[in-house]
Write a structure and sequence with these properties.
The chain is mainly alpha-helical. It is 82% helix and 0% strand. It has 7 helices and no strands. Helix 1 packs antiparallel against helix 7. The protein is globular, with a radius of gyration of 14 Å.
């Protein structure tokens, strides 16, 4: 339940952060977001989870708002905002897990593309979709565990 509660908070905060990032991002912001996305893909391809790189991507979006409060909030929440950081303790990734993480990174790519295009509505929608998907995945996992 705590993971779902944090995702609800993130939907409120990060959808607006993505829209602001699309309006205010710099080339340097885009470069650091791209590095984080590449790090996620590399970790998945190597069979490792990518919690740190995933968090870095979300933190870079917060920084790209050019509003320090977004980055401070993300920094305070830390990598525990990534649901699998709280729930998953596996080191090696099986094929199903790797496919899941590739889908998640595909959602990240959609957010990034909207920010690159300076389209705040698309960035907001892509972030909402990503976080709502995460919330629903957690709800299903919780229901299956019950």
């Amino acid at each position: 339940r705590e993971v779902i509660a944090v995702l609800e908070l993130r939907i409120g905060v990060e959808t607006e952060a993505a829209a602001l990032a699309a309006q205010r991002r710099t080339d340097a912001n885009l470069a650091t977001m791209r590095e984080a996305l590449n790090a996620v893909a590399s970790a998945v391809d190597a069979g490792r989870d990518a919690v740190a790189a995933d968090f870095q991507f979300h933190l870079e979006i917060a920084r790209a708002t050019q509003n320090s409060h977004f980055a401070e909030l993300m920094g305070t929440l830390g990598s525990m905002i990534i649901p699998r950081a709280r729930l998953d303790a596996t080191d090696a990734l099986n094929d199903e897990r790797r496919q899941y993480l590739r889908r998640v990174n595909g959602e990240h790519e959609s957010i990034y593309d909207a920010i690159v295009a300076q389209d705040p509505d698309a960035a907001r929608a892509a972030m909402r979709t990503h976080l709502a998907n995460s919330r629903e995945r957690r709800r299903r996992a919780q229901a299956e565990a019950s």
